[in-house]
Amino acid sequence: MPKLAVFPKAYMQELVKDGTMTLQQWVDLAAPLGVDGLEYYSGMLELADRSNWAAARKQVEAAGMVIPMLCCSPDFSQPDPELRKQEIENEKNWIRMSAELGASYCRVLSGQQRPELSQEEGLKIIVENIEACLPEAEKCGVTLILENHYKDDFWEYPEFAQKMDVFCELISRIDHPHFGVNYDPSNAFLAGDDPLELLDRVKHRVITMHASDRYLLSGTLEDLRNEEGGAIGYAKRLAHGEIGKGLNDYDAIFGTLKNEGFDSWISIEDGVDGMDQLAASVKFVRDKIAQHWPE
Q1: Alpha helices by DSSP H, 102-219
Q2: What pTM was estimated for this model as a whole?
Q3: pLDDT score of 223
Q4: What letter would DSSP give residue 46?
C-alpha cells in the first residue's frame, strides 16, 4: 500500500523566504494529520546550514514520521557550460542533503524553456546533466525523480519538458536504476495535456507521485489548451483546490498505478488555503488509497 506525505505548500514563503516559520513549527502543524511523512524543499532556510540536516531529520522522526522526498529545482537547461556545472553541483549537494534527511527520493527538473534553445539541443544537455548526477545518487542510495513540472516559482520561463511529448522523450533517454518519474496529474493540465494519457505513457517509470487538484475558474479545458498550453506565465483559468473537488480523476489514476504495482510515496502538494483544506485533502487521498489498495 502506498504511503502518504504532505508538502508545506501554504507555508513556502514563511519557510523559504522570510523565516517566520521554523521547521519544528511545520512538524507540529502537520503531525495531527496522521500522515507517514513530510516532503521537504531544498530551499528551506534552516537547511542552508548542513549542520542542521541531522536535527531536521530527528524532528520529523520524533513526531512518528519520516522525510521520504526532497523537492529541488535544478535549472539544467542553462546554455552556459559553467552555469550548468554549478547546477550539477547544486543537485549533488541536494542528493547528499536527501540522504542525511533520510529521504530515498530527490527531485530533478529539466530546467527552463529558454527561447534560444532548440528541443534537440536542450534534450542533449539536460540528459548529460542528469546523468552527471546519477553516480552521486547511487553512492548515497538516493533515486532521482523527474517531475512533469510546470514552472518553479522563481523561474522566468516554464519547464523545458513541460509538454508531454518532450517529457516522454527525455525519460526515454535515461535508463538507470536510480532514476524514475514523479508523476503530478495537475501539471499535465497546465501543459494543456491529458493527465491520464500522460500516466499511461509513463506508468512503468513512475516511482513517486504528487497529489493535488485544479479547477477551472472560467471556460473549458479546450479553452485552456488553446490559450495556455506551453505559454509563459501561469494558467489564468486554473486554480488550486481541495483534492477530490477538481479536474483529476483519482479513481482512474490510482487504478492505473495499482495495476502497475505502485506501492511507493504519494505526497500531497495542496492546502494552499490552510490546514483545514490540507486535512480534507489528506482524508480524500487516504480514503482513495484504502479503496484501491485494500489490505
Answers
A1: 119-140, 164-172, 185-190, 195-202
A2: 0.93
A3: 64
A4: G
